[in-house]
Structures are given as C-alpha cells and as structure tokens.
Write a structure and sequence with these properties.
eight-stranded mixed β-sheet, single chain, alpha/beta, about 400 residues, five-stranded parallel β-sheet, 2 domains, Rossmann fold
Length: about 400
C-alpha cells in the first residue's frame, strides 16, 4: 500500500521533536495515527538516529499483550533505553494499558526520553494523565484524509475537481480504503467493519452499555441530522415516538460516547451580539461522509449539509475553534476563531438563485465588525465580492489549505 504523507501532522511532530513535552496524537480508529508515527520514525532514521534509540509498541498487537501491565511496560522501557542518548518512545493505542498514566508520568521524569502516544478515545486526555501532566503535553488531533490529502493520493487525477469531490463523498476519507479503487461493495464492507469495531471496542465494552439497539438508533439519528440544530431531549422524544423508548439522560450518555470515539463532533452555538455560548440546540457533524453513507444508504445525500460537514471538519483541521453563530434571529454557519482573530463562514451548495444568495448573505451583512467573511459554494464561478463578503468556490478553498505548524 502506497503511504499518503500527512504533511501537516508530520510537520507538527517534527516541530516538537526533542522538546521535553509529551506528544499525544488522538483521532478516530484507522484515521492514520499509526502510519503517521511510522513516517515520523522514518524521519528520525533519516536524521541519523539509530534504531536502538527507538522503542515502538502497538498495544493492539497481541505480541504486546504482556506489556499491558504497568510494571511490565515500565521495566521493558527502562531495560531498552539507549545509554547517554535520547530514546524515542512510541506507544500506539496507549489506552489499552491499565493505569498507563503512572508509566508515562514516571518515564517523563527522564529528560533523555522523548514520548509519543496515540489513542482512539478522547478520555485519554480527560482523566488522570491530564491532571498529572498539566502543561506538559500537546495534543495533535488527527482526522481521516482532508479533500486536499485525498487529491494528493492521485487516484483519479485525470478527472475534474467536481468529479473527484463526488468520489470523495461517495467513497470515504479513511486512508486505507483508497486502495479499494472505488469498488463500492468493498468500501461499504470496510466501513461497516470499522464502525462495528468502534462501537464494540470503544463504546459498548468500555461504557458497559447493554442496549446496543438504542445506541444504534441514536447513532443513525445523529448521522441523519448533520448540520441541523438538535438536543438530546429531542433525540429521545423522537426515538420514543418511533417505538424505541429512550430517556434523554441515556441518550446524552450515548452521544457523549460517540463524541469520545471521534465519530461525531459537536458544534456549540454562539451569540455574536451577546458574546456568549448558548446551552441548547447544538449541531453535530460526522467524521467521514462515507461512513454516514454506508450506514444510512443513498437516501441521505443532501449536498448542502454534506458540504457544511466537510467545511466544519476542514476548519477544525486548520486549527480553528468552531461554533455556530447566532445574530438576532439569523444564523451564521460557522464562527471560526484562532490566534489571529475571527472569521465568519456561510456554506451553501449553490447561490445562483438570487433569493438564495440574498438569504445566505443577510446574516453576514448584519455583523458590523471588520473580521473576514466568506460565502463558500459548489458553484463553479469566479471569485465574487459582495460588499466585503468574499464568495469562493468551496472545492478550490478545500483543495488549497494554508500551511500550518
């Protein structure tokens, strides 16, 4: 299998190399975390680092099962440290190790150990490790392939950008599936297997959930509702009306589990005038449109909501904190904030109809500050400006992300 270089993530690891801070790569299963670490290890060897300076363990490998006990793992690492030189320690799927926090905390005391971790669950950084190592780790949040990374694979470089985008949303952004050459049955079987692995390993077993059918119903409801304002109470009421009795506390727990496994991302609502987060009616977006298609079928291929989902993920990849904007009774699709300030985005499949164009521009026109404002569409039109609001082709915007470390 040809490896797709995940340059954005790799550059971040290189930037933090040899610094006394723990590097934690998080993300949904099979998004490329292990491959990223392999590429980084190759970069170390290319720098002249010797193989005996690298310790690499994947805890999902049965060969590593004896090392899932904290004392055994600690003893193994101590016995294999390079004398008088930096040792690079890679722990893949570290959450498989019982009380791994104690091991990491102890190893971190040695300044000649450079630690890299991966994990497929957000709880990795919400418990004791975060408490023990506050200020001593950085998180690199990884996702499946962006549209730009998908294009770099070059599988269908001979066709138009529009056709390649259609392939991107009709197949999957998970890297391994690129090798299936757009064979729908193989991709669907792969995605269903991946989904079942996440549900069984990362949710049912870890959360000790017994009602797998209710979890399945909750998941399908959320995937069918990407880009729509919803609440856990609304989900519970809807499922109950469909014959799946559910209380909102249980649904809330299930939704949190889906977020923790990186299948779903939540976007809170933000009152732009009041400058405060709102506590109700957030939106949810799925980590991969192909996964959604595999579970729901072709009936849920709303072009506007799919594009909105992809733009949301791309903004997250570019390092923004992303919320849904509210201005009086109008909605701004995304308020994106980073160290450079705020940027506003509206997303629409098409605005060639004048009424639609005016509707999409109205919320941005109401905002009186001077931050950048964009309207992203699938219309293959030249860039246009509407009194300071830039209208761009979304595919061109997705295909050319800015460089960031």
């Amino acid at each position: 299998m040809a490896l797709i270089e995940r340059k954005t993530y790799l550059d971040r690891l290189v930037a933090w190399q040899n610094q006394h801070i723990i590097k934690v790569v998080t993300g949904v299963r099979r998004c490329g975390k292990s491959t990223l670490l392999a590429q980084f290890r190759d970069s170390l060897l290319n720098q002249g680092i010797k193989k005996d300076q690298i310790i690499s363990i994947n805890f999902e490998d049965f060969d590593a099962s004896d090392l899932r006990a904290p004392k055994a793992l600690h003893a193994y690492v101590k016995a294999h440290l390079a004398t008088g030189k930096m040792t690079y320690v890679f722990f893949d799927e570290i959450q498989q190790v019982d009380n791994f926090q104690e091991v990491i905390n102890s190893l971190f005391l040695n300044r000649n150990i450079d630690i890299y971790l991966t994990g497929s669950n957000a709880n990795l950084l919400s418990g004791e490790l975060a408490t023990l190592l506050t200020g001593r780790y950085i998180e690199i949040a990884m996702m499946p392939l962006s549209f730009a990374e998908y294009l770099s694979a070059g599988k269908d470089s001979y066709v138009s950008l529009e056709t390649r985008y259609r392939h991107y949303i009709e197949t999957t952004s998970f890297p391994f599936a690129i090798e299936f050459n757009y064979i729908p049955r193989q991709i669907e079987e792969y995605l269903n297997g991946l989904y079942n692995t996440i549900i069984v390993k990362d949710i049912l077993a870890r959360k000790q959930i017994n009602d797998s059918r209710l979890l399945e119903s909750t998941t399908r409801f959320l995937l069918d509702s990407i880009g729509s304002r919803i609440s856990t109470r609304k989900i519970a009421d809807t499922l109950t009306s469909m014959g799946r009795k559910a209380d909102f506390k249980t649904v809330e727990r299930y939704v949190q589990s889906l977020e923790e496994s990186f299948i779903l991302y939540r976007a809170e609502r933000y009152d732009i005038k009041g400058k405060q987060l709102l506590k109700t009616l957030e939106k949810y977006y799925v980590v991969d449109i192909g996964l959604r298609r595999a579970l729901l079928g072709k009936k849920s291929m709303d072009a506007g909501h799919i594009l909105e989902n992809i733009v949301f993920l791309e903004l997250k990849r570019r390092g923004y904190k992303v919320t849904i904007g509210k201005y009086d009774d109008l909605e701004i699709d995304f308020v994106a904030e980073n160290e450079n300030g705020t940027t506003y985005f509206q997303v629409s499949a098409t605005v060639r109809d004048q009424t639609t164009l005016e509707r999409e521009l109205r919320p941005l026109q109401k905002i009186r500050d001077h931050y950048p404002k964009y309207l992203l569409t699938l219309d293959n039109d030249p860039e246009t400006e509407h009194n300071g609001i830039r209208q761009l082709n979304a595919l061109e915007w997705l295909a050319h992300p800015p460089q960031r470390v």
